[in-house]
C-alpha cells in the first residue's frame, strides 16, 4: 500500500496548492534560462523537497525523474589514504548528496564530488541547459570546514553546475555562503492550508472527513503537512467513519512523551525518575532525536502547569537542550532536566499549600 | 558571459582599477605592476569586499591569459591543503622553472619571472600546514610569490603573517555600495526605488557580493521594479510587523491568564514561518532598545538574557526553545518590574494560584 503522503506528493508546480505565488516566482527564476545557486530553507514538512523536485522537472522535463541510486568511493583523511562509500541519487541532469551523513568527512565528500561533477563537462555544450544541478541536503548540519569548502567552489564552477542547498534553518550557515545564493524561505503551511489539502485528499480517496475533525488534525500538525497526512491515515485506520469527539491520532512516540509529562506531574521522586529514565532510553533507541524529546516534553508541561512554573519550564528546557547539544550523552541531560522540573514543581506545590494555609 | 550569469561574476573587477574602495592595496599593487615585482601578500577582511577579485585581477594583469595557467596556482578551502599537499603540490609547482622571460613578454604583459600561489580562504588551513608553508615560502622565495587570503588574520600563524605585506580589506562604505548598485541596476535596466536601495545597503552590511546577489535575486523573483519589501524577502530579513507582533506578545501583561500562551504562540509561529532565530533575535534586540514600553532597568535585565541566547544559538541549540526561553524572560521581567505594579507584584505572583 502506498502512503497518502507519497501518493499525493505534487510532481509539478501546477499541482501545488500551497504557496501558489512562490511556485510562480520559482518559475520566473528558472524560466529565464539560467539560474543562480539556490538555498531553500524552512521547517521540516513545509515542502522544500517537493518544491525542488518540481523545479527540476520545470527545468529539465521528465528526464529529471529517471533517478538511480549509486554508491561512490571517496578518499578521505589528510593523506587521502582511507576511503568511505557514500550513496547518491542521480538522474542524467542532477545529483543529490547528503554529505552530513559522513560526519567529519563531510568536507571530503563536498570537495571530491563537486569537483568531479563540475569538471565532467556537459556533453552537449550547445544545449540550452548546459549545467548540472547538485542538490545538497541538510547544509545546516555541515561542519564549518565543509561549508568553507563550498565557498570558492561555488564561484568557480558556476558555469557547469548549479547548487541547490537545503536547510531547516539558515542560522547555522556561514554568511559567505548565504551571500552566494538566492535564498528562498519556505514557510510551513498554515492550518487553513493544511485543512484544504486534507479535504482534497479525502475527496479523491472518497471518504468523509468532517470539518471539525479535519481542523483538529491541522491544528495538531504543527504546520507539517507530512505529519498531518500521516495522522489522517492513522486516525482513519483506528476508527472510521469518524465520530464526533474523536481525537486525532498522534504518532506513538508523541503519546509516549505526553505520558512522561503526566508522570512528572503526578509524582516527584527518585523512583519515578528512574522509571522515566527507562522511557527515555526506549525513545532514544527508537531513533527519536533527544532534542525533539525535550522540546515536546517542554510543550506538554507548559500546557498543564501554572503561570510561574511555565517560565521555569521554558527556561530550563532551553538550558538543558543547550547542554545536550554541547555534551555527548543525551540521556544525562534529559534526566537532569526531569529532575530539575520535579524539584521546581515540588517546591512550588509546597509554597502553594503554605500560602493557602496562612 | 551570458546575460543571465550571476551579476557578482558579471561585475567582478577585471583590473585592479575597477576595485572599489580598497585604495591602499590598489596603490601598492599598481606600483608592483610598474616595477614587475611583488612581495608575498596577505589579504584579510570580511566577505564580499574584493579580496579574491583583487588577486585574480592582478594575476591576470601580470601574466596575461596565455601564461596564467602555468604561472598561477589557486588553492582554496575545497582543495586538500594538509601538510602533505603543501609539501608536494606547492613544491612541484614552485620548482618547475618559469621559462625564458623574453618568450613570455610578447603579449605586452610584464610577466615577471616568478610564479604566484594563491591560498584563498586560508582560515581553514591547519596550523601544521601553515607551519609547513613557512619553509616552502623561504626555500622558493626567488621563484614564487604567495598570496594568503582570509577573513580573520588571527587564524594565520604569526611567522607567516610577518613574511607578508599585510592588507586589510574594509567593509564597503554605504555610499559606494549604493553607487555601485545604482550603476548595475541601470545597466540591467532594473528600477529600484530609493527606499529599496537604502534597504539593500542596510542589509548587506558592507558586503558587495551580498548586495549584488540580493539585487539580482529580487529582480529574478519579483520583476524589474524593486521595492523595500522585496528586498526583505530575498535578504532573509524578518518583516518588521512580525517582530513587532512578537515583542507585543512579550510585553503585553494585561491579560494575566493568557499572556504566556499568546507569547508562546508567537514564538512557534515565527519559527514555523522559517525565519532564522539568529536573525529574529538580532532584530528583536533593536526593537527592544528603542521601545518606549520598557524601563531602563528592564532593558538592562533583558540585555543579559540576549547575551545568553546568542551564545546558545551559536552553539547550535534548538531555535524554538531558545526563542521561547528568551520571550518568557522578557515577559516575566516586564510583569515583575512593571513600574505601575510595584508593591503588588508579590501578591500578583501568588494570586495566580487561587484558581
Ligand atoms: N571592492 C570591490 N569593488 C568592486 N566589486 C567588488 C568589491 N568587493 C566585492 N565586489 C563584488 O563582489 C563579488 C565578490 O567579491 P570577492 O569574491 O572578491 O570577495 P572576497 O573578499 O573574496 O569574499 P570572501 O571572503 O567571501 O571570499 C565580486 O565578484 C564583485 O562583483
Ligand atoms: Mg574569496
From TrEMBL, chain A:
Keywords annotated in UniProt: DNA replication, Nucleus
Primary localization: nucleus
Cellular component GO terms, alphabetical: DNA replication factor C complex; nucleus
Biological processes annotated in GO: DNA repair; DNA strand elongation involved in DNA replication
Domain AAA+ ATPase: 34-188
InterPro entries reported in the protein's UniProt record: AAA+_ATPase (IPR003593), DNA_pol3_clamp-load_cplx_C (IPR008921), DNA_Rep/Repair_Clamp_Loader (IPR050238), P-loop_NTPase (IPR027417)
A molecular-function term among this protein's GO annotations: DNA binding
UniProt-listed Pfam families: DNA_pol3_delta2, RCF1-5-like_lid, RFC_C
Localization per Swiss-Prot or TrEMBL: Nucleus
Family as reported in the entry's similarity comment: Belongs to the activator 1 small subunits family.
Protein name in UniProt: Replication factor C subunit 3/5
Organism: Acrasis kona
UniProtKB/TrEMBL annotation, chain B:
Highest rank taxon of the organism: Eukaryota
Compartmental location: Nucleus
Any GO CC annotation of this UniProt entry: nucleus
GO molecular function: ATP binding; ATP hydrolysis activity; DNA binding; DNA clamp loader activity
Keyword annotations: ATP-binding, DNA replication, Nucleotide-binding, Nucleus
Record-linked SMART domains: AAA (SM00382)
InterPro entries documented for this protein: AAA+_ATPase, ATPase_AAA_core, DNA_pol3_clamp-load_cplx_C, DNA_Rep/Repair_Clamp_Loader, P-loop_NTPase, Rep_factorC_C, RFC_lid
Domain AAA+ ATPase: 37-175
GO biological process, one term: DNA repair
Any single Pfam family the record assigns to this protein: AAA
Broad class of where this protein is predominantly found: nucleus
Record keyword Nucleus present: yes
Stated family: Belongs to the activator 1 small subunits family.
Record-given protein name: Replication factor C subunit 2
Organism: Acrasis kona
Amino acid at each position: 500500500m502506498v502512503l497518502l503522503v507519497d501518493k499525493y506528493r505534487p510532481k509539478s508546480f501546477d499541482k501545488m496548492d500551497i504557496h501558489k505565488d512562490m511556485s510562480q516566482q520559482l518559475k520566473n527564476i528558472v524560466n529565464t534560462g539560467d539560474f543562480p545557486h539556490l538555498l531553500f530553507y524552512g521547517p521540516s514538512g513545509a515542502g522544500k523537497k517537493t518544491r525542488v523536485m518540481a523545479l527540476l522537472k520545470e527545468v529539465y522535463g521528465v528526464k529529471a525523474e529517471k533517478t538511480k541510486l549509486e554508491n561512490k568511493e571517496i578518499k578521505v583523511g589528510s593523506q587521502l589514504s582511507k576511503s568511505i562509500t557514500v550513496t547518491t541519487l542521480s538522474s542524467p541532469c542532477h545529483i543529490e548528496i547528503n554529505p552530513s551523513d559522513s560526519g567529519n568527512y563531510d568536507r571530503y565528500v563536498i570537495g571530491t564530488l563537486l569537483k568531479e561533477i563540475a569538471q565532467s563537462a556537459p556533453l552537449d555544450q550547445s544545449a540550452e541547459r548546459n549545467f548540472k544541478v547538485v542538490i545538497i541536503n541538510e547544509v545546516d548540519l555541515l561542519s564549518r570546514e565543509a561549508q568553507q569548502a563550498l565557498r570558492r567552489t561555488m564561484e568557480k564552477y558556476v558555469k557547469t553546475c548549479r547548487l541547490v542547498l537545503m536547510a531547516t534553518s539558515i542560522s547555522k550557515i556561514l554568511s559567505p555562503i548565504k551571500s552566494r545564493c538566492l535564498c528562498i524561505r519556505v514557510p510551513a503551511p498554515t492550518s487553513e492550508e493544511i485543512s484544504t489539502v486534507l479535504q482534497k485528499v479525502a475527496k479523491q480517496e472518497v471518504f468523509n472527513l468532517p470539518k471539525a475533525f479535519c481542523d483538529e488534525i491541522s491544528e495538531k500538525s504543527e504546520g507539517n503537512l507530512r505529519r498531518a497526512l500521516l495522522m489522517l491515515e492513522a486516525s482513519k485506520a483506528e476508527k472510521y467513519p469518524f465520530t464526533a469527539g474523536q481525537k486525532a491520532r498522534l504518532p506513538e512516540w508523541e503519546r509516549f512523551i505526553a505520558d512522561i509529562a503526566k508522570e512528572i506531574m503526578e509524582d516527584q521522586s527518585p523512583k519515578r525518575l528512574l522509571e522515566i529514565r527507562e522511557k527515555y532510553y526506549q525513545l532514544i533507541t527508537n531513533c527519536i532525536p533527544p532534542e525533539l524529546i525535550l522540546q515536546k516534553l517542554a510543550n506538554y508541561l507548559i500546557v498543564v502547569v501554572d503561570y510561574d512554573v511555565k517560565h521555569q519550564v521554558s527556561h530550563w528546557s532551553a538550558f538543558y537542550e543547550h547542554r545536550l547539544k554541547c555534551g555527548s550523552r543525551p540521556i544525562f541531560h534529559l534526566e537532569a532536566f526531569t529532575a530539575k522540573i520535579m524539584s521546581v514543581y515540588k517546591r512550588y506545590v509546597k509554597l502553594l499549600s503554605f500560602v493557602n494555609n496562612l | 558571459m551570458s546575460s543571465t550569469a550571476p551579476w557578482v561574476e558579471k561585475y567582478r573587477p577585471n583590473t585592479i582599477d575597477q576595485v572599489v574602495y580598497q585604495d591602499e592595496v590598489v596603490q601598492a599593487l599598481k606600483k608592483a605592476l610598474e616595477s614587475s615585482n611583488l612581495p608575498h601578500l596577505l589579504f584579510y577582511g570580511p566577505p564580499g569586499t574584493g579580496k579574491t577579485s583583487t588577486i585574480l585581477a592582478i594575476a591576470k594583469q601580470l601574466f596575461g591569459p596565455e601564461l596564467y595557467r602555468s604561472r598561477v596556482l589557486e588553492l582554496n578551502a575545497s582543495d586538500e591543503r594538509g601538510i602533505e599537499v603543501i609539501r608536494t603540490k606547492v613544491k612541484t609547482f614552485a620548482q618547475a622553472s618559469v621559462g625564458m622571460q623574453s618568450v613570455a613578454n610578447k603579449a605586452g604583459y610584464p610577466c615577471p619571472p616568478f610564479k604566484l600561489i594563491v591560498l584563498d580562504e586560508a582560515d581553514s588551513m591547519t596550523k601544521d600546514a601553515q607551519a609547513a608553508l613557512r619553509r616552502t615560502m623561504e626555500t622558493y622565495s626567488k621563484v614564487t610569490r604567495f598570496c594568503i587570503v582570509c577573513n580573520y588574520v588571527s587564524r594565520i600563524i604569526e611567522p607567516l603573517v610577518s613574511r607578508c605585506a599585510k592588507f586589510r580589506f574594509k567593509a564597503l562604505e554605504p555610499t559606494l555600495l549604493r553607487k555601485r548598485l545604482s550603476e548595475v541596476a541601470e545597466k540591467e535596466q532594473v528600477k529600484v526605488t530609493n527606499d529599496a536601495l537604502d534597504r539593500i545597503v542596510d542589509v548587506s552590511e558592507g558586503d558587495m557580493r551580498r548586495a549584488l546577489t540580493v539585487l539580482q535575486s529580487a529582480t529574478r523573483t519579483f520583476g524589474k521594479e524593486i521595492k523595500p519589501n522585496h528586498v526583505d524577502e530575498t535578504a532573509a530579513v524578518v518583516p518588521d510587523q512580525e517582530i513587532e507582533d512578537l515583542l507585543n506578545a512579550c510585553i503585553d501583561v494585561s491579560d494575566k491568564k493568557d499572556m504566556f500562551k499568546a507569547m508562546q504562540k508567537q514564538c512557534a509561529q515565527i519559527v514555523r514561518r522559517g525565519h532564522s532565530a539568529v536573525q529574529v533575535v538580532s532584530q528583536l534586540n533593536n526593537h527592544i532598545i528603542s521601545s518606549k514600553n520598557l524601563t531602563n532597568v528592564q532593558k538592562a535585565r533583558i540585555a543579559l538574557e540576549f547575551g545568553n541566547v546568542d551564545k546558545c544559538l551559536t552553539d547550535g541549540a534548538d531555535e524554538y526553545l531558545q526563542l521561547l526561553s528568551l520571550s518568557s524572560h522578557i515577559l516575566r521581567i516586564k510583569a515583575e518590574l512593571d513600574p505601575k505594579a510595584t508593591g503588588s507584584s508579590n501578591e500578583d505572583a501568588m494570586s495566580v494560584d487561587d484558581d
